[in-house]
Amino acid sequence: MEKVSIYIPTYNAEKTIKESIESLYIQSVPFDEVIIINDFSNDSTSEILKTFSKIKIFNNNKNRGLGYCRNLAMNKAKNNIVASIDADVVLDKYWLEKILSSLNRNDVVMAGGNLKEKLIDNKYNLWRAKYYKQNWGDKNIMNPSFLYGCNTIQFKSIWLKTDGYDDDLMTNGEDVDYSNKVRTLEACNTYYESEALCQHLQNDDLDSLSRRVWRYHSFGYKIKKPSFYRFLKLVVKQLKIFSKRLVLDLLNLKFMFINLIILIKFIKFEFLNFMDNR
Question: Between residues 175 and 219, which one has the greater pLDDT?
């Protein structure tokens, strides 16, 4: 069986990183190499990482973001098969076994698994599970629109054929951009493996959820340079999204309130972003 490396890009993950790493060591098919990219964390993440003796830790000298961390990890990985999860993801025991089966079939060079929200007793997490889920459902899909970066596996040789992840995409959008790059290569398919299960440990409050939604839309938007025109376009887009969700949540007062606050905070965050970058 081919050896598999796995990496976790990590920034201020003191609440979840221990569980994430521990889930790597209970796999039915073991990982050969575990890499952690510590992206200049300023909480207790670094101290937690030191408690693990069998991982390779690379510490950035400043916060560089997801795109950079993914490229660094892919470059450092010693094996041709490289998996990755986010620092708030816990793998099911059979995740690697299931997702490995997707490679080498029908020219599949990269695959993603099925992430489920774990802490749905929290209404904000439940809202996120409805509107920002990180899976494509319970059926396998050849060449989905993109692969969610929270849990993937790929061949390093394919990464070498692209120009890698976009270093400028620091918090969101790097997975969509990279998926598109892979699919433009000749005879290269991507695959969504619904049986490769994992859980999301992220636990939001209203403010953190609002910032998460803002980052998702703002940093992944096609108009990259902040401008008043960009601000107006994004606000109009959010008003349309809000209107659709308002109809869907007519009988759910809690979600209607969340929708409204997220819209207000989005406009605030995007306006401040515009003002800071004038």
Answer: 175
